[in-house]
Amino acid sequence: MPRLTRLLPLAALLRAVPAAAHATGARDHHAPPGWTLDPWIVGPLLLAAGLFARGARRLLARSGQGSAALRRRARLYAIGLAVLGAALVSPLHEAGERSFAAHMFEHELLMLVGAPLLVLAEPLAVMLWAFPPAGRRALAAAVPVVAAPWRWLTGAVTSTALQAAALWLWHAPALFDRALASEGWHVAQHLSFLVTALLFWTAMLHRRTPAGVAALCLVATAIVSGALGALMAFATSPWYAGYASLGMAPFGLTPAEDQQLAGLLMWVPGSLVHAGAALMLMRRLLVDAGTGAQHVR
């Protein structure tokens, strides 16, 4: 049953992501960005929130000393879903159709904030209690089937490599422009970013991953994503024809300046999050080593 708690972020996001694709030519780019009240986005988010709330109510009615931990997980889950909504439903989502920097900020919210919060919440065990006993037994029976591939995908090195590959491949001009022009390709892009982020944070935050290995993978990710952001930030001409064809971006930025801002968003906040997480893990490793040394004495 605990392994099932790792699968919910993927399940919830796989439902919400397909509607998140947006073709840059679909709207009036001179009008202020509005809310994206697409039922294929809002519906799955509300469903995920409702299942968790129903399961949490049932567990709280049964729990005693574990209620504090359950409430903590509920807060993490609520914030994670709120971040997801801010990225996919708020005007930020539509602004990403006309600004690469806004688009980058949307991806950063999903990959650096929403994904780790959902992984930390481990909500699937709670959501299972929204189903009748027969449904819970059927879902639990599926665990042995997915356990081996899930363990491989959430390995520290594997998930780090998958996320790095997704970032670099999808930011190649040919693929990125194709994603901007095609809804199907944009779905694939968002799926790649979000799923690999969920796999990565699952590996980094899982107890079976040694703290030293996780810290090294986080530092490597900070370097890999930071290098890509730096290339964008220092580029003097726009890489992507889809944004360049729109002319001036919001706030009076040229396409090249808009791209430079997007590069800074990937480079600085992204590197800080990964490096900060690595430092926290190293601190835990040093504290554990010091405690072990005292016990030996």
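Above is the first protein from milestone M3; the second protein from the same milestone is given next.
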Amino acid sequence: MARPRSFDRDAALDQAVEAFWANGYERTSIADLTKAMGIAAPSLYAAFGDKEQLFDEAVARYQAAGGGGVVPPLLAPGGTAREAVAAMLDAAASDYTHRDRPRGCFVHSEPRLGEQRQRAAARLRTRIARGVKDGDLPKGTDVTGLTAFYDAVISGMSARARDGASAAQLRAIAATAMRAWPAADRS
């Protein structure tokens, strides 16, 4: 007969998210995980499988929690594309410097998460393309180029946060980036 689990699986998974986020997959050992999660290695393996399975579940949990507040502005039905991107950058400034978790963005700082970064860029591209369609960006806007630019800004903000930049410093980067936004064609 199996013994009942003697730990809170969700709380342990939250700690695994933070360990992977802070140190990256490659630099996070099973010993690091068991210490962070407050469980023994046999319990980790029984509850989560191996390190890679735990990592996959940790990424899913991070994304289910919204991956911070950076994505919701892009998905909001109202407002202009400019407002959505500005809100995304402002949310990043807050989320990436939050005191209660690792700095920066888990997805942008983890090399193994390229597919997730591509999906995030696709959401950004969709919102920018909708802005062209809605007329709040000029018809000839280079949607791919503008997406790449703001995707690079958000990635750079994550890196700067990991290096210790404050929310105010990240907001200054965001303000500078928003000055590059193409003016709407109102003719």
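Note on the second protein: The chain has two domains: 9-64, 72-178.
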